[in-house]
Design a protein that fits this description.
Layout lengths: L1 E11 L2 E4 L34 H17 L11 E6 L4 H11 L9 H4 L6 H10 L5 E5 L6 H12 L6 E7 L15 E9 L9 E5 L5 E3 L2 E2 L3 H9 L4
Parallel strand pairs: 3-4, 3-5
Antiparallel strand pairs: 1-2, 1-6, 1-7, 5-6, 7-8, 8-9
């Protein structure tokens, strides 16, 4: 199968951007990620500030990727699927929520935090914001590479059920109390995939995959999504 990358967007400790404007740089392990909704969304988004950190990262990455692909605007629902890979998901939010449950026997439990105690909550936010009616998944990897989701994205796009698939990764890193490291980077990175020949305008290049074989970008095997982003972003900047 052969498909093309039509958009990419990211947020990490090195900055945020869209591939047609900024060269992608991977974040630094353990470094904080700070950004505002004004840097991502052209119009005010009141709910954004109330989201947990994991959801803000994921929604921003999706928004930037769709903008880069020219698919952010919509009038009717689009049957676009979203696949996200993560290691820790919303574990940070789960811990914060539990801290509000312990006092007073749960009487002070935060309803706002509770709304984000599922790793796929931000995918629902993305569907509302961008009119995405396709299925959405969060895949948990032991070490974050995004390749599991990329394989799935290419398979379902090849089945002909969707005009495009968003695929990427989102993570906030491990809680300090876990004593874990080197499994993920804090941030979000997303790509828009479409079938070859369908999108208008320039594309980042082609992804190919044989049955049970590796995924290759322009003939070279893809190691993980951050390395793929580095290769792609050099095409336009």
């Amino acid at each position: 199968m052969k498909q093309v990358i039509t958009g990419m967007g990211w947020v990490n400790s090195a900055g945020l951007g869209r591939g047609r404007r900024v060269v992608y740089r991977p974040g630094i392990p353990g470094a904080p990620v700070t950004f505002s909704s004004k840097q991502v969304f052209p119009n005010p988004m009141p709910r954004f500030g109330r989201m947990d950190r994991y959801s803000r990262l994921g929604l921003a990455g999706i928004a930037l990727a769709l903008q880069d692909a020219g698919l952010a605007s919509w009038k009717e629902l689009r049957n676009i699927a979203v696949i996200t890979s993560t290691v820790y998901g919303c574990l940070e939010t789960d811990a914060d929520y539990y801290d509000t449950v312990i006092p007073e026997g749960g009487k002070l439990a935060s309803p706002n935090l509770f709304a984000y105690t599922l790793s796929n909550t931000f995918l629902g936010e993305a569907a509302l914001q961008f009119g995405l009616s396709g299925p959405s998944y969060v895949l948990h990897e032991e070490i974050l590479s995004g390749l599991t989701g990329l394989h799935m994205a290419m398979e379902i796009l090849a089945a002909g059920l969707f005009p495009a698939v968003l695929v990427g990764m989102c993570d906030t890193g491990p809680l300090p109390s876990l004593g874990l490291k080197d499994r993920s980077l804090t941030g979000a990175l997303f790509f828009v995939l479409q079938k070859e020949g369908e999108p208008e305008g320039e594309v980042y290049g082609s992804l190919t995959k044989e049955i049970s074989g590796p995924i290759c970008y322009e003939g070279n095997e893809t190691e993980d999504l951050p390395r793929l982003a580095e290769q792609c972003s050099k095409r336009f900047v």
